[in-house]
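Long-time lurker. I teach an intro course on protein structure, and each term I like to show students one example going from raw sequence to a predicted 3D structure in token notation. This year I'd like something fresh instead of my usual example. Would anyone be willing to generate the tokens for the chain below so I can use it in lecture? Attribution to the forum is fine with me.
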Amino acid sequence: MQEAGRRARSPRRNGARGAIHIYVGSWHLACVLVCALGYCRAAAPAAAHVADDSLAASTGELKQLSLEDLANVEVVSVSRHPQKLSSAASAVQVITSDQIRRSGATSIPEALRLADNLDVAQKNAHDWAITARGFNTALANKLLVLIDGRSVYTPLFSGVFWDVQNYPLADIDRIEVISGPGGTQWGANAVNGVINIITKKARDTLGGYVEASAGDQLRDLVVARYGGSLAPDVHVRVYAQQFGRAHDALAAGAAAHDAWDQGQGGFRLDVDVSARTQLTVQGDYYRGSEDVVAGNQAQVDGGNLLARWSHSYAGGADMSLQVYYDRTHLRDPIPAFVIGGHALAAAGFLIDDLDTLDLDFQHRFMLDPRNEVQWGLGFRHTRDEVTNAPAIAFLPPLLDQNLFSGFAQDEVALGERVALIVGSKIEHNDYTGWELEPSVRASWRFGDGQMLWAATSRAVRTPSRIDRDLAQPAPGGPLQVLLGSHTFISETVIARELGYRAQFSERLTLSAAAFYNDYGHVRSASITPPAVLPLYFQNNVEGETHGVELAADFQASDNWRWHASYDPLHEHLHVRPGQYDFNAALNEIADPHSRASLRSSLDLSPRVEFDALLRWTSTRRINSGPTTLPVDGHLDLDLRVGWHVSDRVEVSLAGQNLLHAQRAQYGFPGPQQVAIERSIYGKVAWRF
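-- Reply from a regular --
Happy to contribute to a lecture. Here you go:
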């Protein structure tokens, strides 16, 4: 059934998304952007000096934060307002800009491997399976992902198309990763975790930046960015990037024909309207092409425009209003639907055009010095228009949906060291009506730099178009095999968490989180008596998962840091008594029982860096219907050496998956399973 689900999501099916050919050469595009903002230095007399100052600042950014500095990093994803990481009552990890640079990552999914609380598996050249705390299936749908407050969730399958979530990594300020429900703050689909990707403010990226990378699997990657000051309180940057990735290999050794080319450009404008009022306007546009393992080529393009106004008041109160528009286009090749040598539907293309308009308002104020209240309202309208393929259809092909939401949260200091956070989100969607997502969190700070926290939360995963509107093959053929169901309801989880975080000294920190999640109404596939087919989606699976997330940082010396993690996970799903699931409760889980990592960051000299990441994943089992086969566990090693030739020029050499010439990380074992190849590339970055 995972194979059927993969075709339902999009047919390049080892997990891909489409893209369209790049029409403008990357170097020409880079030159145009640099020239376009070159006038900023002349328009604002101070701009040149500010840009030069930013070079010194960027050089300082290349130094690692101390463990104490990391503990004091502010995060906003836990309570939707800034708070120190050390005091956040949640299993949250922060990937800093410097960690991303030193990792050698060339894409957001690769950078997410730095978050121990995520399971990241590469499917092919352009697709990844990413989740927190289990349920990492081909249609993984329990992780909410935000980029600067813009949700990149798709209602097609309640998940994320990772191949179109691209952004210059040099312009990312940090990535906050929460494992555990975030429904109270962020709403439906924040079931097992939240990833919040936060980009740098325009004033932090003044001057020019160009990087170029090339290697065997990463054929080329070119990034150009220029930032300037239009006025003392107005800062802007524009960027463009283009990359191409080579084919991986099939398990038998032949080329997988999954090459990937994509380009993207965008801008960000930050205006300090006054000392207390800020305005941000930003947008992106992408276009690319992806070869598909099953044959043919997928195409995507899309863009977004976001505006955010925020104002702070004396006494600590603040409010913000955000609005964004997002449009995505997918043209996906769907192979013929064949069962037992009989073609039930011909090959064709599925075309999906999704328009999203989202508004979000938030207000925070103090009832008294110990009591902080936060509330907000939201509205989202989506229009999803599908041109169906013979082998797969969504009915109706045109669907307009509205989502209304509101949330309230009260944070009370019960003493000098004890805090209580109580809140809930309430949402209304067109599929299931009203949904309630409450949570209670408590924290106790004790000793010197130690904190114990506990939480109980409810979150939901609302139905997607696959759950409700799927028809596979499309109506009109001799037989339909899989259908959505209008009786499909929201999946639920009741999560209980207990965590501990401590900084024992300037050189040693530890964090631990244990969880027990109780899931209800999980997706299943029922039969149609007496003929069995068509199968149709229902909510006949339930069960529990539990596990522990352990992480430690050790500063061996001023220039050498170690990070270690271990994440065991146990999943126990079953069919509800008296009910039926064609997949025997196996289709929603495809996770390793254990993961571990060891990361070293060493400064060999003031200008030479050496970084290593050793990561181990145990065997994961992938199903096709009630049959499961293993994807063997594996040990992988990533290495990077970097040389700061000057304060403006950096040269580096990186290798990924170095312990194997090629190895499958995901996918049902068979002729079309892709083996990810060893990758080595060089990079030059220039700040000016």
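Some talking points for your students: Residues 2-254+311-340+356-687 form a domain with the Maltoporin; Chain A fold (CATH 2.40.170.20). DSSP finds nine helices and 41 strands in the chain.
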